[in-house]
């Protein structure tokens, strides 16, 4: 989907999509072509790749050089090269030469890239609370302001009240359709069997690491719960829908119940574990709509019921209730 190209630090970046070339400026939102994939589809295509998330996780704590990622991650030369090129093309990274070191480069996070820290934090919090199967222990997060270990709390950016899924209402905006919101590419998980089991995000990748999984999860948060609705709205093959619904039930994210219309028409509804994934979804959407803008308007529009204002995600510390900022979160080794 993307073509690597040579560039200099600070220059615009072009990304080749199916029908258009997008120009990405490191510190400005990308303008999307009218009628093309919207912010939701592009964002899910980006974050639904475990290697991208692992690369970003280490970049956010200071990793900048190719060799450092090769040392830290069980990643091949070819895969790392492709991911860094793609992330640079999307202006998540800027590639810059190292002073006094010929042919040495660093991949420095842009404002757009640094703005992804809330997404990694919500994924960490969900995996920590709901997924016991981790080959490597998750790190601890400490809020430097209060000095305590914490969990992020999803809050309303307008009134700062804590928010749960039922507290937010809304749906598709001017550029929002099911077709335009399906992830733009079929993403690939790293092989857990070849690399020693699940990584840091095993179940997150099961939910968003495949274009149809991500689409079904998003549709569930939009209120869909019947097999035929998933099939008709998303346009996915019935066998794919059935396989993903079965997987989500096995993970405990969905529960199957008899339909109110007919007992032989099961409903698939989000469980408590599934609803707890809402911060990951809404933070990703919030990031995407800040950085990818369709001329028609936003893909999704949400309102906070309590204050009646447009909802934009904000994370606060559960220990001291202060707003969280990226430079105030300290990552520590597991105890």
TrEMBL record:
Single GO MF annotation: DNA binding
Residues of the HTH hxlR-type domain: 32-135, 198-296
Record's keyword terms, sorted: DNA-binding, Transcription, Transcription regulation
Origin superkingdom: Bacteria
Disordered: annotated span: 174-197
Protein name: HxlR family transcriptional regulator
InterPro entries hit by this protein: HTH_HxlR (IPR002577), WH-like_DNA-bd_sf (IPR036388), WH_DNA-bd_sf (IPR036390)
Gene source species: Planotetraspora thailandica
């Amino acid at each position: 989907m993307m073509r690597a190209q040579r560039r200099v630090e600070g220059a615009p970046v072009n990304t080749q999509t199916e029908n258009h070339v997008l120009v990405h400026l490191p510190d400005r939102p990308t303008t999307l072509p009218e009628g093309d994939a919207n912010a939701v589809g592009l964002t899910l295509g980006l974050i639904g790749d475990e290697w991208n998330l692992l690369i970003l996780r280490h970049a956010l704590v200071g990793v900048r050089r190719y060799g450092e990622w090769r040392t830290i991650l069980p990643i091949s030369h070819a895969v790392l090269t492709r991911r860094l090129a793609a992330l640079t093309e999307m202006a998540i990274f800027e590639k810059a030469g190292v002073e006094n070191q010929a042919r040495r480069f660093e991949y420095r996070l842009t404002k757009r890239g640094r703005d992804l820290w809330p997404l990694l934090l919500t994924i960490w919090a969900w995996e920590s609370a709901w997924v016991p199967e981790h080959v490597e222990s998750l790190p601890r997060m400490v809020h430097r302001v209060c000095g305590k270990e914490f969990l992020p709390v999803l809050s309303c950016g307008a009134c700062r009240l804590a928010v749960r899924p039922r507290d937010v209402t809304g749906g598709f905006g001017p550029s929002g359709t099911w077709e335009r919101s399906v992830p733009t590419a079929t993403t690939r998980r790293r092989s857990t069997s070849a690399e020693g089991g699940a990584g840091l995000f095993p179940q997150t990748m099961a939910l968003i690491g495949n274009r149809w999984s991500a689409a079904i999860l998003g549709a569930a948060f939009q209120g869909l719960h019947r097999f035929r609705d998933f099939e008709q709205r998303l346009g996915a093959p019935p066998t794919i829908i059935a396989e993903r619904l079965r997987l989500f039930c096995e993970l405990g994210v969905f529960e199957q119940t008899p339909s109110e219309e007919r007992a032989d028409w099961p409903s698939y509804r989000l469980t408590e574990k599934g609803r707890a994934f809402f911060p990951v979804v809404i933070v990703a959407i919030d990031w995407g709509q800040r950085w990818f803008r369709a001329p028609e308007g936003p893909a999704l529009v949400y309102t906070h019921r309590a204050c009646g204002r447009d909802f934009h995600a904000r994370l606060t510390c559960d220990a001291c209730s202060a707003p969280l900022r990226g430079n105030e979160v300290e990552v520590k080794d597991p105890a």
